[in-house]
Amino acid sequence: MKKISIIVPTKDRADTLYWCLKTLKNQKCEDIEFIVSDNLSGPETKKVFDELQDERFRYIRTKRRLGMSEHWEFALEHATGEWVTFLGDDDGMLPNAAEDFIELTNKLNVRAISSNMCKFYWPDALDKTNAEKLIIRSGRGVEVRESRIWLNKVLTGQAGHESLPWIYNGGFVHHFVIKEIKKNQGEFFKSIIPDVYSGVCVSQYIDKYAFSLKPLMIGGSSKHSNGAKISNGNSCTDFFTEGKLRFHETLGTGKTTSVPILVYESYLKSDKKTISNKITSLPYQLARAIVSAPPSQKKDITSYCHQILKENSPSKTLFMYYKVTLRIKRKMDSLKQKNYTFEKKTFKNPSAKNILEAANFVSDIINDQLNG
Predict the structure, then answer these.
(1) Strands 133-138, 112-121: parallel, antiparallel or unpaired by DSSP?
(2) DSSP summary character for residue 162
(3) Banded model confidence at residue 238, pLDDT cuts 50, 70, 90
(4) Cα–Cα distance list, 146 to 149, 150, 206, 208 (Å)
């Protein structure tokens, strides 16, 4: 068994996949497997793989086009590593990240490890105002976190879902946990949003996990990114229609830019629900979605949430829940203005035109920070 399995699901994105795989090929670690899972792409994807000439890489291909979560489930079946993670095909791995991760596993007695994640907006990013923007989140040390407490923080808006023990972009889950989840619910991914779902689900199967303030991965936002398409209001029909999974029937179509709604959908889809109180109620979560909505999306998200409430709980109002969630948001906004638990730096127009160059740029900055 290899120490690490890194799975890269891809579908007709050879242009960004090429640079993503370059960041993996540059890893010095040998106790690792890289799985490129092709969801019935054209010939360009296989051509990118064939050029790698690296025995650590494996290529697998679906027999038919699958929905996103079904594709991730298919790829997960092929992983043989002790630790598993997924990486988007426009994302990248920071130099020496594999060795850094193995060092963490040798020090820590946990079965899930997450990390800060940096972000790079490709030159062709859908959000043109952020094109070629690079955000670096980094710090020193590792936090051992109680899963239930942090899931509660996410459901109340005190933390982002990226802070949970997910199996994506810097989040690794031990194969024992994966087996336990599949044994209990039949499949690992039960929501059409597999990255968000994994964090919510895994949080309810483990007591604690580690969070590295030093990042391991860099997320990319390109013209291909599903999340970017949805958040920018672009059409992403196949995301909702391909495959057998559907958005939770209580929460409408799912075609919303509200992250709290997506997180709540993952909670409703998980079989093992460990938090049973008012914060997991529909009115509370709808109020939270409205309170946290960006100004440019406030009107649409408010309308979406009130329609859901009307269809499911017509006798209830959001007023009391709105006051509670607004108070939490104001508190969190105040804390963000005072300090961060990690450093956040933003660069505009760095000398990076692809995820490989961005990863190298980030690594240099972090090394200077840690050695300074």
Answers:
(1) antiparallel
(2) G
(3) low
(4) 6, 6, 9, 4
pLDDT confidence band for 273 (50 / 70 / 90): confident
Query: Which pLDDT belongs to residue 231?
Result: 54
Two structure tokens written together for 202: 């895994």
Residue 369 has pLDDT above 90, yes or no: no
CA distance 197 to 4: 21
Q: What is d(CA 239, CA 102) in angstroms, rounded to the nearest whole number?
A: 34
Task: Using the predicted structure, report yes or no on whether residue 342 has a pLDDT greater than 60.
Answer: no
Q: 0.90 exceeded by the pTM?
A: yes
Q: What is the distance between the alpha carbons of residues 123 and 117, in angstroms, rounded to a whole number?
A: 19
Distances (CA, A) of 22 to 18, 51, 219, 322, 360: 6, 10, 15, 47, 11
User: Which domains, ranges and CATH numbers included, belong to the chain?
Assistant: 4-228+342-371 (3.90.550.10), 246-338 (no CATH)
For 125-141, write each residue's pLDDT tens digit. Answer: 988 889 889 999 999 99
User: For residue 142, what is the enclosing H or E element?
Assistant: strand 142-146
Contact 217, 87 (CB under 8 A): yes
The residues, ordered by sequence, that sit 6+ positions from 236 with a Cβ below 8 Å of its Cβ are 226, 229, 230
Q: How far is CA 338 from CA 129, 130, 157, 333, in A?
A: 26, 25, 18, 9
Residue 39 near residue 75, CB atoms below 8 Å: no
Render pLDDT for 198-236 as a digit per residue (tens, 0 to 9): 999 999 999 999 999 999 999 999 998 766 545 554 444
* Amino acid symbol at 232: N
Contact 324, 284 (CB under 8 A): yes
Q: Using an 8 Å Cβ cutoff, are 329 and 294 in contact?
A: no
Torsion, Cα 105 110 116 120, to 10 degrees, reads 70
pLDDT recorded at residue 235: 42
Beta bridge pairs of residue 112 = 173
